[in-house]
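If you are new to this repository, start here. Below is one unmodified record pulled from the training split, so you can see the exact layout before writing a loader.
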Amino acid sequence: MAVNKALTIAGSDSGGGAGIQADLKTFQELGVFGMSAITAVTAQNTLGVQAVYPMTPEAVVKQMESIGDDIGAEALKTGMLFNAEIIEAVSAKIKEYNWEKVVVDPVMIAKGGASLLQIEAVTSLKKCLLPLSLIITPNIPEAEVLTNMSIVTMDDKREAAKKLLDLGVKNVVIKGGHDEEPNQAVDVLYDGNEFSYFTTERIVTNNTHGTGCTFSAALTAELAKGSSIYDAVATAKNFIQAAIEMDLRIGSGHGPTNHWAYNQKRGK
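And here is the target side for that same chain:
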């Protein structure tokens, strides 16, 4: 039996809602064998991030080599990379193994407001990693940092998407979770030629911890299975919508999404 494999290069979330934990749960739910290279260990829960303990670049590289030299991966995603040294080391290894289906989730700020990417690392992200990506999945605040522009209107989203492609990105999906639109969330996909729009009902809930990680992981899983960019984004959008709609109400802060909701809704 052919097994599709996906690698996540990201931080560990002790609360289980985001990071490596969310990615592996999502890979499993979508029928993909998940592997990980941990970039940092965080102490966090629904109330926020209490501490971050970054790995050394060497430790991250060794984990990637263990995968690349033996198992391989049909697709990979990056999440919290924390600093410039790790970003540069990860980028070099992606080049070395010629991994092409690379999804970059430019994780910068946690739901509670804690910074998850050092300021000086943004330059390395733009210079080293973005040109290697097949698709990047920023939310609006992240896209604003990367493009140095304010994003309020749909025209702003389209302009930001074009600016991101100028950085070497092949495809970009700007997520609509931070939109001011009260009734719907619109994700905008741009492939350099045309825009596509994915619209879902906005769910009013505090339980959205890990939505970005989960969305990008679902996208990665679908790419690993051979889906097109458009179809992968569509599945990721449906996956995260179900995860938000059927929330778990864990903890007393920003709770996690429900990673088994997508399959539960489909009767699997």
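Two things worth knowing about this chain: Residues 5-263 form a domain with the UDP-N-acetylmuramoyl-L-alanine:D-glutamate ligase fold (CATH 3.40.1190.20). The chain has one domain: 5-263.
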